[in-house]
Amino acid sequence: MTVKVKICGLRDAANIAAAAQAGAAYVGFVFFPKSPRNVSLSEAAGLAATVPEGVRRVALTVNADDAFLADLVAQVPLEMLQLHGSESPERVAEVRARFGLPVMKAIGIAEAGDLDKIAPYEAVADQILVDAKPPKGADLPGGNGATFDWDLIAGRQWQTPWMLAGGLTETNVAEALRRTGATQVDLSSAVESAPGVKDPTLIRRFLAAANP
Ligand SMILES: O=C(O)c1ccccc1NCC(=O)[C@H](O)[C@H](O)COP(=O)(O)O
């Protein structure tokens, strides 16, 4: 089975092309001003236009309001919204209904109890992103290159499609897949040469390691 890979936080056409050519199933654009990966709506619109057919374009937002989401979906061609803040299940359902796009809800995991947070979203989200909880004091709610204990989710089944994220690298992805049973993965930090700067060689190496 092919593992689907999402490369998040892309900011230039060359890295989008590298990801697509290497087999990425999804590319992500970050809309979070504090992030080194942040893009404007007009930048994202230009980048989205370069994404080859068949690669899904995902917009990552954090507790975005309707006005921002309306501008986003009007200006940027997208296949999915990723909600990476503290959006409630009700808000996820509302965004999904109002903006007409599949929604992936990110849930941060650090300990077994965090897994209970997933169930309420299963009925309202199209996908769940099972991600590492940000380290204490982190500026970003995701994209920190932090892992969580994969054994917490070993053998877990969810009815909703899900992706594994959090500190995945070309060297640990095979073990992560084996221990969690994930069939989709999402990453950002490990394919960067500096914060916010993606590296096409690292992207290609990760894609090869995810599907050897
Ligand atoms: O990447 C960001 O800057 C970011 C900002 C705000 C919310 C989420 C953000 N990133 C999420 C991701 O890139 C991934 O979905 C995930 O957290 C894995 O990231 P990484 O551990 O860096 O591979």
From TrEMBL:
<dbReference type="InterPro" id="IPR011060">
    <property type="entry name" value="RibuloseP-bd_barrel"/>
</dbReference>
<keyword id="KW-0057">Aromatic amino acid biosynthesis</keyword>
<dbReference type="GO" id="GO:0000162">
    <property type="term" value="P:L-tryptophan biosynthetic process"/>
</dbReference>
<protein>
    <recommendedName>
        <fullName>N-(5'-phosphoribosyl)anthranilate isomerase</fullName>
        <ecNumber>5.3.1.24</ecNumber>
    </recommendedName>
</protein>
<feature type="domain" description="N-(5'phosphoribosyl) anthranilate isomerase (PRAI)">
    <location>
        <begin position="5"/>
        <end position="207"/>
    </location>
</feature>
<dbReference type="InterPro" id="IPR013785">
    <property type="entry name" value="Aldolase_TIM"/>
</dbReference>
<keyword id="KW-0822">Tryptophan biosynthesis</keyword>
<dbReference type="Pfam" id="PF00697">
    <property type="entry name" value="PRAI"/>
</dbReference>
<keyword id="KW-0413">Isomerase</keyword>
<dbReference type="InterPro" id="IPR044643">
    <property type="entry name" value="TrpF_fam"/>
</dbReference>
<keyword id="KW-0028">Amino-acid biosynthesis</keyword>
<comment type="similarity">
    <text>Belongs to the TrpF family.</text>
</comment>
<dbReference type="InterPro" id="IPR001240">
    <property type="entry name" value="PRAI_dom"/>
</dbReference>
<dbReference type="GO" id="GO:0004640">
    <property type="term" value="F:phosphoribosylanthranilate isomerase activity"/>
</dbReference>
<comment type="pathway">
    <text>Amino-acid biosynthesis; L-tryptophan biosynthesis; L-tryptophan from chorismate: step 3/5.</text>
</comment>
